[in-house]
Amino acid sequence: MLQFIGRRLLLALPTLLGVATLTFFMLHVLPGDLVETMLRAEGGNPSVELVAAERARLGLDQPLIVQYFEFLKGLAVLDLGQSHWTGKPVAEEIFSRLPVTLEVAALSMIVAIALAIPLGTIAGMYPGSTVDYAIRSFAIAGIALPSFWFGMVVALAMLWYFNWLPPLGTASLFKNPLTALQQLILPAIAVGYRYSAILIRMMRSSVIETMHEDFVRTARAKGLAMRTIIRRHVIPNSLLPTITMIGLEFALLVGSLVVIEQVFSLNGIGRLFIESVSRSDFIVIQGIVMVLTLIFIAVNFLVDLAYAVIDPRIQLG
Amino acid sequence: MQARPDAAAEPLLSVRNLNVQFRSNDRLLHIVRDVSYDVRAGELVALVGESGCGKSVSSLAVMRLLSDPTTTRFSGEVRLAGRDYLRLPESEMRRLRGRDIAMVFQEPMTSLNPLMTVGRQIMEPMLEHLDIDRAAARERAIDLLKRVGVTDPKRRMDQYPHEFSGGMRQRVVIAIALSCNPKVIIADEPTTALDVTIQAQILDLLRALVKETGVGLVLITHNLALVARYADRVNVMYGGRIIESGTVEDVLRQPRHRYTAGLLMAVPRLDLPRAARLHTIPGQPPSPARFPSGCAFSPRCGAATAACGSVPADTVTRDRRYACFHPVVDVLPQEGEHAAAGAEHTFGTTVLSVRGLTRHFHLKRRAVVRAVEDVSFDIPQGGTLGLVGESGCGKTTVVRTLLRLQSATSGRADFAGQDILSAGKRDLVALRRQIQVVYQDPSTSLNPRHRIASILAEPLLVHGLCKSQGEARARVEELLGLVGLPAEMAERYPHQMSGGQRQRVGIARALGMNPRLIVCDEPVSALDVSIQAQIMNLLADLQAKLGLSYLFVAHDLAVVRHISDVVAVMYLGRVVETATRAELFSTPRHPYTRALLAAVPSFAADAGQGPEAKITGELPSPLNPPSGCVFRTRCPMAVEACAKVVPPPVAFSDTHRVACIRV
User: Fold this and answer.
1) Is A263's pLDDT higher than 90?
2) Nearest residue in chain B measured CA to CA from A309
3) Which of B28, B32, B55, B198 could form a cystine bridge with B20, CB 3.0-4.6 A?
4) Is B176 in contact with A222 (Cβ distance < 8 A)?
5) Closest residue of chain B to A232, computed from CA coordinates
6) For the ABC transporter domain, which residue ranges apply (chain B) (predicted)?
7) Out of B99, B113, B129, closest to residue A215 by CB
8) How far from each other are the two terminal CA atoms of chain B, in whole angstroms?
9) What is the SS3 assignment for B241?
10) Using CB atoms, which residue from B98, B129, B162 is nearest to A221?
């Protein structure tokens, strides 16, 4: 077990290095100069000398390869550097906003799984039936509708029919859970619905396959009730591929979050990301990408652990 | 044989005029037609037939397990202890299933839930149907495991199915079936997926349980020899009907129906002198989508007349019934058409000579699987070497290394003056042309998207044996003719052919290269008995006509005896005995060979096997093979010395070598 964790951590290193390299060079291919943008934002037309001095102060006059190794050196000691724009440490910028994002992500995942397992199972039990068509249409709609649009519609609908608006401001899920939940539930539904669409389809096809397995026939020959067979034999065996999908689709979830935070004006990582892009604040963007990569690796690690818990045939190590 | 159950006793299970119809693409397929049979307490009733005859569907119907009730129609009666349950609502039927009537399935590897402990799976039906608590159910489950021959049942209870071998899993499935003391058990091909020694263990167990507990057992099988050895009564099915039934002695000794007689003569049998040719039934079993009208067997029957266009009524005598207008009146000939005694070939030259072939697989943490260890044999020019052994004995690895699909760890294999195992790339191309393969499963070894013409033409063009498409086309037709297929078949896709026809295409593809040696890897094990005989005769004809040599890999000893001139028996990566056919089957020397032969169900009623022939236990892991003689852990004759040295081959004649220190 420990050996397994150790090996996975070692394997994560090349992944992180690859992501760091790709992100760094891709960002520097993009047009836009941080210093000019920043100085112009302060008003006036900065002189060439001023720009050059500012660039020198931030170390942007160094050759790209030197900047790259500076970045890697920072990463090695878990230092993501300072934001060029605000001058604050990138880590601080990110971690002050991370909780909101993670809360929405976790809630979305719960919404998605709560939708996907029952709906996927029912659809898979009666393929080709009206219920199946209804559930599949629901799933297709989830993939087709952009989550920001769906989020807005849900918010408007709540306002229109119940005259309800999520409370303003930021509340911590731990200090003020009720307010926080009210704020987070709409974005979580908007993102979770989309996330669930893929999981429903996965669960459905996985249940259809499991229903034809010999051991399900054995269970029927034992005289078990259909409900028991589904609960005890079909669902556990169908969960395996669905769980893999949860890990893989986590990237998509993050993508949706960036957008949904704008719609519901949540001050999370997504917000920070968009702000940093418009400011060409590369250091922060790099930092965000690195943190998200780490979270993605962690989620997939948990998925593998879950796999080993559910399936006795899989031995970690 | 135990006392025959009282024929007058009330049957436990009584099936009357069972009909099953499926709706498929707006057509109604009438799969099971007027099937009637009885099972009495302590009786083992066989339902025997080839694929598509309706034997499995009829028993699933008896269990009421056919998956989709909306597309399936039943009629008739199925009485369990006098009560007809065919029309019970599912909620009540469920209470019978598993409690009064239980089932054992074919595939032990997939019949158990991989995510649940074996113990819980055995306890499940008890907790569902019986009024007992978990602790009592657990006690009983442990007891059941012990009864079906699982050692250390307490510990095994908490293990998962993947920690059990196939034979052990089948024992668990039997324990599940027994868990609620059912009146009747239906076993659908319970040993088809298992090795012959394990098959004997499982069926001995089932038979003992039937006699001991008085449960009625329906044994569904395609294997007539199993019926002969284990069943009390037999029902032969063809085209959805039971066409003949009676006691096993009557039906197998003196079949009345033309199909039963034909089937019995098509099976290669170890208890009869070897026939030069197998009797065949022309054509193939009908597909359930198109059962012929009238007597379904008439299109394949030599005795058919105009009368056979209508369904024959049952002829009923004292204890048997059959439905045939032209029943067989003679006693079945007790030997082949002309026994080939004394017609043993002598072979001068050797086409392939294998010496010291070894293949190890290196796993993680320095573990080594000794898949093949020091294997030597010679294939005679124009003759056949049968390589026989149970699954995991290394025969497939031998084949793969000889074809250079895998490299050997050491050893040599001389073919046409060259060592195959060390041949360079260019030589290998030429060697591969001279050594061709026929695979086991004809339905997966042909590309489903290609027509037969292009499947056969491709290697001809690749190897430059045909210069143009036209030339290849002519050669394809010639090849099809050689394997007995009409030229029109060239336009078909593999799925438009039957299994036997596809295997003929597989053989034609191999012949296209004008090979000297053909490696046949279990070429008939996926085929029905009547088709198997056709393919074996075809292989023999081609050998005589083209002077081919065969390396024939198989697990079925009767098949091996029929086709081979020389036989090599493998066990756990080693050859334990090599001999000519006559030597091996008349005087088997190695205890493993003897055990293997004893385990093969034979038609001879209770052929007296000495207790020393019984083989117990299971194949040890090749990861950690026993020291000295690899067979000693299961050998009834093993002594201490067997653990010390690997037994060197002892020669009994020029051709008979046995690796055992106790012979």
Assistant:
1) no
2) B115
3) B32
4) yes
5) B116
6) 15-264, 352-597
7) B113
8) 32
9) strand
10) B98
Cβ distance of A213 and B110 shorter than 8 Å:
yes
Nearest Cα residue in chain B from A210: B113
Q: Name which of A217, A222, A237 is nearest B124 (Cβ-Cβ).
A: A222
- Whose CA is closest to B410, among B353, B352, B359, B354? B359
Q: Are the CB atoms for B249 and B234 separated by under 8 Å?
A: no
pLDDT tens-digit profile of B591-612? 999 988 888 887 765 544 444 4
pLDDT single digits (tens) B27-62: 888 889 999 999 999 999 999 998 888 898 999 999
Q: ipTM value of the model?
A: 0.81
Q: How far apart are CA A41 and CA B319, in angstroms?
A: 105
Q: What single letter denotes the amino acid at residue A255?
A: G
Predicted local distance difference test score (pLDDT) of residue B69: 66
CA A184 – CA A264 distance, rounded (Å): 9
Q: Is A214 within 8 Å of B96 when comparing Cβ atoms?
A: no
Check if A223 contacts B (Cβ < 8 Å): yes
Specify the pLDDT at position B342. Answer: 44
Torsion sign across C-alpha atoms B191, B194, B200, B202 = negative
Touching check for A222 and chain B: CB below 8 Å? yes
B176 interfacial to chain A (CB closer than 8 Å): yes
Whether B549 contacts B381, CB under 8 Å: yes
B114 touches A: beta carbon within 8 Å = yes
Rg over CA atoms, chain A:
24
Cα–Cα distance between B245 and B268 in angstroms, integer?
A: 22
Closest C-alpha among A63, A55, A61, A62 to residue A39? A55
Beta-carbon separation of A221 and B162 below 8 A: no
Residue B257 · residue B319 · CB < 8 Å: no
From 3.40.50.360, 1.10.3720.10, 3.90.650.10, 2.40.260.10, which CATH number describes the A91-310 domain?
A: 1.10.3720.10
- Contact list, B105 vs chain A (CB under 8 Å): 214, 217-218, 221
Residues of chain A with CATH 1.10.3720.10: 91-310
Contact (CB<8Å) A218/B112: yes
Beta pairing partners, B217: B44, B185
Class at the top of the CATH hierarchy for domain B350-441+515-658: alpha beta
Exposed/middle/buried for B6, CB within 10 Å: 0-12, 13-18, 19+? exposed
3-state secondary structure of B242: strand
Range name among A170-174, A230-234, B33-37, B503-507 with the lowest pLDDT average? A170-174
- Distance to chain A for B91, nearest Cα, Å: 8
Identify all chain B residues contacting A206, using CB atoms and an 8 Å cutoff: none
B140 Cβ contact list (under 8 Å, min separation 6)? B126, B132, B179
Q: What is the gyration radius of the CA atoms in chain B, in angstroms?
A: 26
Judged by CB atoms closer than 8 Å, whether chains meet at A232 and B129 is answered as no
Predicted confidence (pLDDT) per residue in A285-303, tens digit: 889 999 989 888 888 888 8
Q: Using one digit for the tens of pLDDT, what is the confidence trace for B541-569? A: 999 999 999 999 998 899 999 999 999 99
Domains B13-100+180-322 and B350-441+515-658 share a fold: yes
Report DSSP letters for B385-411, one per residue.
EEEE--TTSSHHHHHHHHTTSS--SEE
Residues B48-77, mean pLDDT to the nearest whole number: 86
Does B537 score more than 90 pLDDT? yes
Taking CB atoms and an 8 Å limit, are A313 and B160 in contact across chains? yes
Query: Which CATH fold topology does B13-100+180-322 show?
Result: Rossmann fold (3.40.50)
Does the structure show a pLDDT above 60 at A164?
A: yes
Q: Which residue has the tokens 């006059």?
A: A61
Q: Please, are residues B415 and B434 in contact by the beta-carbon 8 Å criterion?
A: yes
Domain residues of chain B, as ranges?
13-100+180-322, 350-441+515-658
